[in-house]
Amino acid sequence: MGLKRVLGQDKTINYLRKLLEKRNLPSTLIFVGPEGVGKKLTAVEFAKALNCKVDPLNGCDTCKSCIAIENRVHPNLKIIESDTIGIDDIRETIDNSYVPYEGIKVNIFVNVENATIQAFNSMLKFLEEPPKNTLNILTCENLENLPETIVSRGVVVKFEKLPFEVIKEIVKQFVEDDEKASTIAHILNGTLKNLSQLTKDEVYKKRKQLLTSFLNLIKKKETGTKFIVKFKDYYGDFNYITVNDFIDEAIDLLRDIIFIIVKKETEIVKNIDLLGFIADEFLAFNLKRLKDIYELLGKAKEGLLTNANTMHIILSVIFTIENM
């Protein structure tokens, strides 16, 4: 299926097909957009099309080249994906790029914002003057997280959140009940980031329990200590990923509540599984307090970028809310 496998990104795919038609490629493409919307998938399918002689505008998925790329064994494909992309990763990629092979060599740097300063510095000249027939694709969530010198060397390709109907159709591959599939599609909120987790019944239930506990904390119906128990039951531990994920969830939840209170609408609400609880407990709630907690969470998220003690950040948030 090639590029046809990429759903919900029609504008982006049309642009990439124009590049394939002209075969006038920039040396670097920067795929930017939320996690879970198909950036890595698109990069791999684009590599197929670039090296496919059967269907060079899409990729055929049946020729030797496409099959090798799909199985990550083609010499023209290198995917650099790590919690931290280091200078050795860049040096190895550069060395491999100078090994001659027929076709277009594609280096895909996944979540390139995770690269170290030394790695970015090593990358600069390579991005500007790569070997002939080499394309570098960088994926990231926000351009602001990349050095300006890196951004200036690439062509930015934007990815949007996926349409609700696209998300729902994908969810229905794992969830038979139509109403539950619709609820999960709303919760996913335009990305497939947590798809594999939310389609598990136990995770789905525990997420709702955790967010209900958080709302009860705000309402002073539960203690911070009880909420911490629910947090550990759902996430397992306090680390950057879990704390950042919860803060994002909490911010979205408060945004939903504030929107419902102010606009009296529910169409664009993410957490529709909590609508009944919100209607019972928050329609007459103090709006200023909600906004104060919203700002507290925003500052905590900023703090995660500079403070290594993630446990301190989340505990500070919890007990500040408890004592507000």
Short description:
By secondary structure, the protein is α/β, with parallel strands linked by helices. The protein has 15 helices and five strands. It comes from Caldisericum exile (strain DSM 21853 / NBRC 104410 / AZM16c01).
Description:
The chain has helices spanning 10-22, 39-51, 64-70, 87-97, 117-128, 148-151, 164-171, 178-188, 195-198, 201-218, 224-235, 240-263, 275-281, 287-304, 310-322, and strands spanning 28-32, 77-80, 105-109, 134-140, 155-158. With 324 residues, the protein is an alpha/beta fold. The protein has two domains: 2-158, P-loop containing nucleotide triphosphate hydrolases (Rossmann fold, 3-Layer(aba) Sandwich); 200-322, Zinc Finger, Delta Prime, domain 3 (Up-down Bundle), CATH 1.20.272. The N and C termini lie far apart (55 Å). The mean pLDDT is 94. This is DNA polymerase III delta' subunit. Its EC number is 2.7.7.7. InterPro entries: DNA_Rep/Repair_Clamp_Loader, P-loop_NTPase. Keywords: Nucleotidyltransferase, Transferase.
